[in-house]
Amino acid sequence: MPELPEVETVVRGLRISLPGREIVDVRFGKTDFVDDPAAIAERLPGMRIADVTRMGKFICIVLEPMSARSDLPSSRLYFVVHLGMTGRLTVVPAADSVVPHTHGFFALDDGRELRYTDVRRFGRMLLVQESGLPEFAGRLGKEPLEISAEEFCRSFAQRRARLKSLLLDQRILRGVGNIYADESLFRARLHPARIAENVSKKQLLALHRTVREVLEEAIRSRGSSISDYVDSEGNRGTFQQRHRVYQRDGKACLRCKSKIKRIIVAGRSSHYCPRCQPAPRTRHAARKRLKPRMHSDSHR
DNA sequence: AGCTCTTCCTGAAAGC
DNA sequence: TGCTTTCAGGAAGAGC
Questions:
Q1: Alpha-carbon dihedral of residues A271, A275, A281, A284, nearest 10 degrees?
Q2: Which end of chain A is more exposed for a tag (fewer CB within 10 A), N or C?
Q3: Is A259 part of the annotated catalytic residue set?
Q4: Residue A207 scores a pLDDT above 60
Q5: pTM higher than 0.85
Q6: Closest residue by Cα to residue A58 from A128, A117, A4
Q7: Does A3 qualify as catalytic in the annotation?
Q8: Can you give the distance from the CA of residue A233 to the C1' of nucleotide C14 in angstroms?
C-alpha cells in the first residue's frame, strides 16, 4: 500500500518523464473517487505539466497554462492524486493495452498517456487552485523527513493517545502509514499501544530518529510492494524484504528470536515483538501489582 | 480528547 | 469442488 516512500518513488519517476509535457485529453472510467470529474476533464487539456511534487501521501501535479506569462498573476492549478490502498499512476505509450480497473486516462502531447489504475478505488483525485493550496496543505501535519526532533517531541508529549494512532494521524505527520509505523516502533523498541505522554523524551527522540531512518531506507529500496504497489514505470519496490515486523507475525524476531505478534491498535493491525517492545502496564495490571492479594475486586 | 464503529471497494483466502 | 463469508485497510464521519 502506498505510503510516503512509495509515493516518493512514484513522484521521482513522474518528475523525470512528465514536466514540459502538455495534457491534450482526459477520459474517465468510473469516477466515484474523483472530486468534480467534469471540471478536471474541462480544465486539464491545454495545460502544461510544470512539476510533480509530494505532500505526505498526496501526489501533486503542478499545471500551468501553455502561454504562461511571468508578468501576469499566476494561474497555476494543482492536480492532486492520493493512491489510497491500491492506486497506481503509470506513464505508458497510448497504444498500450489497458489493465483492468484503469479509470483515468490523461493523454500527453508526445503519444504517451498517464493512467490511473485502482482496484478498490480508495484513492482520491481533485483539483486545487493555487489560492487554495495553503489551506489544503495546512490540514496536513509536518513532513516526517523534515520535522525537527524538538517539534516531533512537542507533538507527541502530553498526548494521551497511543503511539501507533499518533504516527498514523496525518494531521501530525504526513505520510506515515501502517507499514512504516510498525517498522519505526520496532526499531525504537516501543510498543504500539504505549500512551505518548508516558514515553520518555529519550524514547521519543529515538522514535523521531527511527521514523526518518526507516523512511529513508525504504525510499532507497524504492518502497515496499506487498500486493499492488508499483512505481510510475510499473516496477515493484524491494523494501518488503527488509521488513522486521510488518506481516511477520508468528515468525522469529530478527533481534531476539521471540515470536512476532499481531494485535489491533487504533483499528489497525499492528505487528511487534513482545520482548523487544514491552507492553505498557494496564490499569488492571498496575493494581494487581500494588495489591497482589486482593480477591475479586470489582472490574472496571 | 480520543476511542470504536461504519462506510467506501474488490480480490484473496478461509470456511463449509 | 464450488459456493459463501470474512478480511484487509487510508481516511473521514458519527457517536460515545
A1: 90
A2: C
A3: no
A4: yes
A5: yes
A6: A4
A7: yes
A8: 40
